[in-house]
Structures are given as C-alpha cells and as structure tokens.
Amino acid sequence: xxxxxxxxCANCTCSPGLLSRTHKRxxxxxxxxxxxxxxxxxPRGASRKGSVFTIDAASLCAPDAKEVNTSKRLEKLxxxxxxxxxxxxxxxxxxxxxxxxxxxxxxxxxxxxxxxxSAGVAVVTRxxxxxxxxxxxxxxxxxxxxxxxxxxxxxDFNWVLLKQGVKSExxxxxxxxxxxxxxxLDSGSKINIGVDPKLITYQVFEKFDKVVRDKLSLxxxxxxxxxxxxxxxxxxxxxxxxxxxxxSSPASIIKVLDxxxxxxxxxxxxxxxxEAMNKHKCVGLVVSALDEIAWLLNLRGxxxxxxxxxxxxxxxxxxxxxxxANNYRFDTKVQAALQADKVNVEPYENFWTKLNSLSKDxxxxxxxLLVPKNSSWEIIRNLKCSFEQPLRSPIEDLKGIKNEVxxxxxxxxxxxxxxxxxxxxxxxxxxxxxxxxxxxxxxxDDKLTQFxxxxxxxVGLSFATISATGANxxxxxxxxxxxxxxxxxxxxxxLNDSGSQFLEGTTDVTRTxxxxxxxxxxxxxxxxxxxxxxxxxxxxxxxxTTGALIDSIARQHLWxxxxxxxxxxxxxxxxxxxxxxxxxxxxxxxNAASSSLKPGHLISNEPGYYEDGDYGIRIxxxxxxxxxxxSYNERDFLEFDTLxxxxxxxxxxxxxxxxxxxRAWINKYHQTVWNELSPSFFKNSLExxxxxxxxxxx
Length: 698
Known about the structure:
Helix content: 25-40%
Number of strands: 28
Structural class: alpha+beta
Distance between the termini: 59 Å
C-alpha cells in the first residue's frame, strides 16, 4: 500500500492537497483583497455544509480549522462496501443520462474525492483482510490532461492521480482490476468490483469486463477470482446525508423554444428520426441523452447548471412517442405543445417499468429496439428483446447539423457576446492600468456577466467562466472561487474563457491578453497559437474528412517549436443547448475520428499552450462548416466561417513570425469586428476607443 505522510505543521487538520491549492492560487496582493472583500459566506453557488467545496482559504491551518479532507468519507464508503461485499467500488462522473456536466445531486465523484473537474472516474478499494475498526484501502482518480493541474491541487493525501492518456499510466479500468486481483490473491476469496449500472454505458461495461477477463487469463492470475457486478443502490447517495445536506431536486419550469429560434417543428424532426429508425429495421428508439430530448421536442429547461436541459427519458415507437418527465413543471405552452404533437407523458420514475414491459412485448412480436451506445448499462440490463446499438443516436447526428435559422441565431449570439466582451476588456484595462484598482478573478467574472446580461435574450452562462491570471491560466479548466482566487496582475497574462446562452444560440470564446509589456516567450508562444488558430480557420478540406485528420493543422506551428497542448482542438456546440456537443470534434479523441465534418456543423477552434506555474495561452473562436464552392473528382470541398467577434491581443503578436497571408487575415478579421461592433458603441466611449485601438491594422 502506498503511504503518504501528512503535512508536518502544528495542529493541522487540512490536507496537503488543499494546502498546495491555496498556496498556488494566492499572492500577497490577493491576500490583501481577500481580507478587504471576503465575507462569511461560502463560495458562489455552493450549498454543501462542511463540504470540501466550501472551505474557507483563510481557515486553513488555523487552530480551530475543521476537518475537510476525505478520510471520513472514505471510511464510511468502505463500511458500506463491506455490507455489499465489494472489494472495489467505481464512482463515475456522469449521471444516469451520461451527461458531461451534472446537477449538484449527481456530483458523486466530486463528493467522495474533492476533485471538481467535469471529467474523471474515482476508484476506491477495501482491504478485505483488514481487521481494524477503521477499514483501509486505496483510492485513485483518473482524469485527462485538461485537469492534471486541477486534480493535483484538489486531491488530498488519500488519493492517487491516474493521468489518463499518459504513456505507461494504467487506465482506471486496469488499475481497478489490478487492485481486485491482488486482493483476491492475498485473501484467497472472490472480489467483486461494484458500480452503479445507471452511471456507465453498456459500451464502458463491455470494455471494463473485457479487462477483467483478459487480466484473469494471465498465468500469474489464474488463482484469482474477480467479477464486475451491478450495484443498484448508489453507495455515495446512501452516505451523502451523513456529511452534507442532499441537494434538492430540480423544480424549475420547462418551456417551449419558439420555432423562430429552432427553425424546425417537432413534426419535421420526428419524421427524420422515424426514417432513421426504419433504416435500422427497428420499430422503437430509446433516448436517454437530455440534450437530444430537448432538441427533438423544442423544449428547454434548467436542471443542470449552464445546460438548458431537463431530466427525462423518451421512448419512440411507430405508434407512440412517450416522454417520461415530471409534468408538474410544464407551463401551459408546454402542455399545449405536447398535446398538439400527440406526445404521451408519464412520470419520470415510470421509465424503467415501461421499458421492461415494452421490451417484453417487442420480444413476443419479434420486434427490435434501437438503443444507442450512449445508453446506460442499466437500460440494457432491463431489455427483454433484441436490440441494435448504433455508434450514435440518430438524433445526435440530426441535431449536430444546424439549419439556416440556427446558424443565423449563432451569428447573432456571437455578435452580442463580442459586444459584451469588448466592453469587459475595455473596462478591465481601464480599472487595472488607468485607475490602479485591485480586481480579482471573480470580480472580473461577475463584471463580464453583468455586461452579458445587458444583451437581449440572454438566458445565462454556457459554462463556468475561466477567469485566470498568471499561473492560474495554465490550469486548463480553472475556476475562480471566492476567498481563494487571485488578484489580476496587469504584468502577467490574463486568460478569459467564457460563454453565454442566448435564445438564439450558445457561445464559447477564449481570449488571452496582456495589459503591460509581455515577456518574449509569451509573445512567441501566443503568436504560434494564433498561427494555428488561423491555419485551421482558413482550411479547405474535402467532404468526409474527420476531425482527427485535421487536428495537426492547428498544432503544426507549436510542433515545429517542439511544443504542444494537452487537450482537443475543437468540440461541437449546441443551438441554445450544451456548449459541448457531439458527434463532431477535432483532436486525438475517438469521437474526432468517428464522424466527418458536414455543412452546418458548429465547432470551436481553440489551440493553446501552457507553462505550468507561469502562464497559459488559449485562443478560441467558433466556426461553422460550409461549402467552399470547390470540388475535385466529384468530391466537394468544405471550409469554415468564423463567427466570433472579439479582437486578438496585438501586444502578444510577433509580426515577424507571421506570413503575409496571416497578417492580412488578422487585419481583415479585425476590420470585420470593427465594422460590426463599433456602431453599437457611443463614439469616444471607453469601449469604442478600446475597440478602435485593438482593431487597428498590424
């Protein structure tokens, strides 16, 4: 067993991980502001008493500091594991709809580990031979390169970090099975690896089970006995109340999204879905992805922060469409729309009973169900009929291609967002440079939100704003927290990655700026990132091209300098839906190789570069795919059209590294930004003058 000693400080009840997180995110200036501005409340949006999410940085190592590490939680979990005869327990990040971002109630992996990133898996083991009153074992979190820094800072001494994608590092499945096999060999007994079957897909289950079988087949492991088992009682849910109040269930109203924003009616969409079902020779489709349900029904909710979705399941057959959702949350328009579209509504909880009975009927009639691979293991476990699992739901493919109304809405949304961001950067520069004010990362975040709220049809943010100064910008998914965030240092790089939800569309924009005199390496690296952004944005490519094939276009200039970044280059974006949307992407991940780019796809363009402990650079535009007007051998060529309307940071551009074409592209882009945004501002106003300065030709 790996042993890690605690920090050697007097009367300390905090963990080294939490200590290092606070130390890395603070500067002397920040402490002054914290003392001046901090109140007694918990971080914005937090409601978990005694939680690792609500620690007060000022209390760390104080004489009366309360226990905030995960030791007691792991102890309780291992006691429950003993009751359920488990040697290993897996805690995924997802909810039962396989959502990337989840509601407070479903943040079970964050609850047990303290790691707040949106992606990752926690694995906890129990030493079945331990006879001590306090059970022992190991614990690990696996996550990808976007979160390595964040996880290192947030995990306490109980946890090991498994760096997903790093050479020679085991996957969480391999680590889990290795631990289970060793426990079995040591104890001479069977070891069960448990997981809530609603929280992993059947595809993940099959991959996990194969790892179990492959490792057990090795000669050295022939005496071990290990089984992957479904545990329908979620153990984290059972113990949660012992440490914190359970978050309340969503009670917000579900609303209709007007056709002037969607561009298509429900009838149009369900016709296309039915045709796709028939191609698979299936007479039924199970839909569990929340954004697919919202898109198909032209409904929006707010059950998950930043994502305008609501909890529900959908079963589509040739005879009936049934929505399983809590109908007391429907407003009058929703009720009327569903009735007009002949959508049957049943309580959310009835889905499992209905799925079981329907699949029995299908079995008797020799009918087949279409169950996409993003469906949970529990859905497959409940089926009593034959089924087909396509790589993706037909709804995901249909949703990914935006119609003309949605593309027009995306353009409008990015114009609004650009206006808000220009006001923000002009304000921030004035406060820091001209007024000499102390502005921390969270105050900047709040001010930007205020500017966005001034725009028509603003609904909310599309994700938690990354407002990061200096070294914090190197944490790819950094989130400023009240009492722990840093004051923005005008002599260091500042990175802002943020987005909005408008009725017209969803935005996602990143700009990296400097307010004074950047260092030569910052200028060089920024320019290399910008060249990659321009190269991808300018690309023309043949139809049927996947994102995996063009990822290197954005990385080529960094690669030429022996540099790279540890995240994907692009992700799909919804139409007033999730900011991260399938099926497309550009990068090394499997989804980028499984789907080709098509006209109407809305996608980000976000190369970056990160110097741990010093600074981070990322430049993100949103683009859509369209016909280029060119073809070769009867194969059409496609191109991108950039929608984002925010200037680049001229102080960080080394003109000598640009080609003539790149310089011309930047000048043309800046002229477009000026032409489209300047009429919105009063002449000689702060934002007008800032925009004029930032869009002047290179």
